[in-house]
Design goal:
The structure holds two protein chains of two kinds. Chain A is of the alpha/beta class. Chain A has two domains: 44-162 and 322-390, Periplasmic binding protein-like II (D-Maltodextrin-Binding Protein, domain 2, 3-Layer(aba) Sandwich), CATH 3.40.190; 165-316 and 409-456, D-Maltodextrin-Binding Protein, domain 2 (3-Layer(aba) Sandwich). Helix content of chain A is 45%, strand content 14%. Chain A has helices spanning 2-23, 31-37, 59-75, 92-100, 112-120, 142-145, 170-175, 187-198, 215-226, 244-259, 271-279, 290-299, 333-348, 357-362, 379-390, 400-406, 418-434, 440-456; strands at residues 46-53, 79-85, 107-111, 149-150, 153-154, 156-163, 165-169, 205-208, 283-288, 307-311, 317-327, 410-412. By secondary structure, chain B is mainly α. Chain B has 15 helices and two strands. Classes of the chains: A alpha/beta, B mainly alpha. Chain A: Pfam families: SBP_bac_1.
């Protein structure tokens, strides 16, 4: 009897809490609505919280950030920047929780892979009306800007941008009798090099590939783009990967894994697995961008000079990778304008902020990696590249084939419902890498029907 | 009897009630701490999760009620059936291994006359490791090339096995990890139960000529029936929520061979950003677990 009473009281308390929580979800204050009420005076004080301040464990880059904040606030005294540090800057587990708890920064950091999902979910503000605050936006590569666009509306600004290429261990190339200055240009050459590297002995893996935790589908997309194929049809309504290019991706992996034995015995790799193998000096090649070399050097005990990056073999197109900033859907127009000024100052101006290579070289931070191609051949891009080469302290020549190819390779966006599609394609990738009798045609047909069903559901 | 007490308490004067409350104030204080913790960290999230499974939300705009749409979405997912089948298989295998092995270990430890304390510590040690560390340790054990298990098999001229990399062995490999991680707790609970059995029962059985297996069958098992049943139900409830093993070891692969309901729930919520779908899966799993929990409560109430 007593326990029933307590249970009733607790249930009621729970419902009250739930109701309170539901009630606390205020209607979104759209920028337009906020602007319409009472427009603040020009240059009225405004505070913006900005994510992805480098963590304390990275003191050099943090000091640069803090110095930039001070300089920016001196230039715009009415703007106050509240830096928020976190490492990694974004993880799926905290992103939605921060939104739900109202803790999301006014200017938040995103990876390209999440941008489409955020736009479709209405979780970012439309910044199109305020873009004049960041004049260099007009000079950014249109294919890069398209990542943050939905129709004519713009929802964010890129910070770094790169296409996928082929990362390789120059040291292992030399050991295997291969010329590290002439990296593979075709998949047949990749296959041949992988065989020679894995022949170095037990534990050496010629070519590594992902196949778990949605990363397999992600790299399948990279590979099929490189071969000129597509994952979905141009209207985004049907699967397009059950094609000669899709078949070639899987057949090639199957041959390297089971016929050549050049991919190692352990599979189901995810991001950190290949980074660890690359850093440990036992992996010859993998699909990746220059940021892989940065991660391997910074976090996985590799050395810059041991690695090189070249274009994805036979590629004319490449999956875009990178990161940027988007604005909280509840940010006011003043906050958006202030945020754009900050982005322009810190991330878009040659010789300044992230492009202050002279300062980075002086501070002992690696300079020379082609991790950011925001402008292509436009004037700011040329200026940035010239300064990067001038102050380089890592061997720029090791990345020259990649830089050369990037001039002509077309950057392509991820498909709609990317993570859901990647999860489905993981199955095909893991099948060819773990099962010798895997039937590529059946795998592609099965994945195709699942993706078609997913896309049809809207 | 309890009704009479309640009625009696209702007739108390306000002064008596006040005295009773002040006498038990400390107890209420302790209780309130636990209740607040449960309310915020267990009951409130459960209610929110229930609501979420019928909503579509981006955590920005007001949530939209969508009825059973989230449930339809997850029903239509090709991984849905695999997730339930894998979860059921994992639970079954975990019962075969994770339920029997600790009991056998407890029996052996109970019979030992020497080094009992040392061996108890050895058996319990894995529980002290953080789960992520224990799981990642097995990632190396399972490596088909340089892994400890295949090296050991090689000594006997066996193997190599693909372990996590084969749909035939991946789920079983996860069960082994789970069993190893939880072995210590189960063993200690069984050991405590075994040590509460009066030694006269064994002596009488021995006088009747019962061997080891007969003593276990006719004395040990009947005397520990309640704890065995309770552990069985707790084991089912715990293993059906398996997440960390597939999350850290296999990423649900190969070929969805280790996707579990909890892992799929994670995928929906955090990878796909579909919190309603994740909530729907969570609610389904919760309903199944409620059935087992109700049986557990019934059993523990009836037998105590």
């Amino acid at each position: 009897m007593q326990s029933r009473k307590i249970a009733t009281v607790l249930a009621a308390a729970g419902l009250v809490l739930a109701a309170a929580a539901c009630g606390s979800e205020e209607p979104a204050a759209t920028p337009t609505a906020a602007a319409g009420s009472s427009a603040p005076a020009a240059n009225a004080p405004v505070t913006i919280s900005v994510g992805c301040q480098p963590p304390k464990t990275n003191p050099k880059e943090r000091a640069q950030w803090d110095a930039d904040v001070t300089a920016f606030q001196a230039q715009y005294p009415y703007i106050t920047i509240e830096s928020k540090d976190a490492f990694p800057c974004i993880v799926p587990e905290t992103f939605q929780a921060k939104l739900a708890g109202g803790e999301m920064e006014d200017l938040f950091y995103v990876y390209y892979t999440d941008v489409r999902k955020i736009i479709q979910a209405g979780q970012a503000a439309d910044i199109s009306p305020y873009l004049s605050e960041a004049p260099k936006v007009g000079e950014l590569r249109q294919d890069v800007m398209s990542i943050f666009k939905d129709g004519e509306k713009v929802y964010g600004i890129p910070r770094t941008n790169y296409g996928t290429g082929l990362v390789y261990n120059r040291k292992l190339f030399t050991q295997a009798g291969l010329n590290p200055d002439a990296p593979p240009k075709t998949w047949a050459e990749v296959q041949d090099a992988a065989k020679k590297i894995s022949a170095l002995g037990a534990g050496y893996v010629g070519y590594g590939e992902y196949s778990a935790g949605n990363t397999g589908g992600w790299h399948f997309t990279s590979s099929i783009y490189g071969r000129g194929g597509d994952v979905v049809s141009p209207d985004g309504k049907t699967a397009a990967f059950n094609s000669p290019q899709g078949k070639a991706v899987l057949e090639n992996l199957k041959t390297m894994r089971w016929t050549d034995n050049s991919m190692g015995t352990k599979q189901l790799h995810r991001w950190e697995d290949l980074m660890r193998m690359m850093g440990g000096g036992k992996l010859g090649m993998m699909i990746g961008a220059p940021d892989v070399v940065q991660a391997v050097n910074n976090d996985f005990k590799g050395k810059f000079e041991d690695y090189g990056v070249t274009a994805l073999p036979e590629s004319t197109a490449s999956l875009s990778g990178g990161d940027g900033y988007m604005f909280n859907a509840k940010a006011t127009p003043e906050q958006i304008k202030a945020g754009l000024l900050w982005l322009d100052f810190r991330f878009l101006t040659p010789g300044q902020g992230q492009f202050n290579y002279e300062r980075s070289a002086r501070d002992g931070i690696p300079v020379g990696l082609p991790t950011t191609d925001l402008y292509g051949t436009a004037a700011p891009g040329t200026e940035i590249n010239a300064q990067r080469e001038q102050f380089a302290n890592v061997p720029v020549a090791h990345f020259a084939p990649y830089v050369e190819a990037a001039k002509t390779v077309q950057f392509k966006l991820e498909p709609p419902k990317a993570q859901e599609i990647y999860a489905i394609l993981d199955t095909a990738m893991s099948a060819v890498l773990t099962r010798q009798d895997a039937n590529v045609d059946e795998l592609l047909a099965d994945a195709e029907s699942k993706v078609n069903k997913l896309l049809a559901a809207g | 009897m309890s009704t009479m007490t309640v009625k009696g308490s209702r007739r108390r004067s306000p002064g008596a009630t006040r005295r009773s409350v002040s006498r038990n104030l400390t107890a209420y204080g302790f209780l309130s701490g636990a209740l607040i913790c449960f309310a915020f960290f267990s009951w409130y999230p459960m209610i929110r999760e229930f609501i979420l499974s019928f909503q579509k939300t981006n955590f920005i705009d007001p949530p939209e009620w969508v009825g059973f749409e989230n449930f339809e979405t997850v029903f239509d997912d090709s991984a849905f059936a695999s997730a339930w089948l894998n979860t059921a298989t994992f639970t079954l295998l975990a019962l075969v291994f994770g339920y029997v092995v600790p009991f056998v270990f407890a029996l052996v430890l109970n019979e030992l006359r020497h080094a009992r304390a040392y061996l108890r510590l050895v058996v319990y040690l894995p529980v002290m490791l953080p789960p992520a560390v224990a799981v990642l340790l097995f990632k190396w054990f399972y490596d088909p090339g340089a892994g400890l298990f295949n090296q050991a098999l090689d000594v006997f001229g066996l193997g190599p096995l693909a372990w996590l990399d084969s749909t035939d062995t991946a789920l079983l490999s996860l069960v082994i990890v789970s069993t190893w991680m939880n072995l210590g707790t189960g063993t200690l609970i069984y050991l405590a139960a075994l040590q509460s059995i009066p030694s006269e029962l064994y002596e009488a059985a021995e006088l009747d000529g019962a061997g080891l297996f007969k003593r276990v069958w006719h004395v040990t098992i009947p005397q520990t029936k309640l704890i065995l049943l309770v552990m069985l139900l707790l084991q089912i409830v715990a293993t059906m929520q398996v997440f960390i093993e597939p999350f850290l070891l296999t990423g649900g692969g190969p070929e969805n061979g280790t996707v579990t309901v909890a892992y799929l729930m994670y995928q929906y919520a955090f990878s796909f950003g579909n919190w309603g779908g994740g909530g729907a899966l969570g609610l389904m799993l919760m309903l199944v677990l409620i059935v087992f929990s109700a049986v557990y409560l019934r059993v523990s109430r009836d037998r105590t």
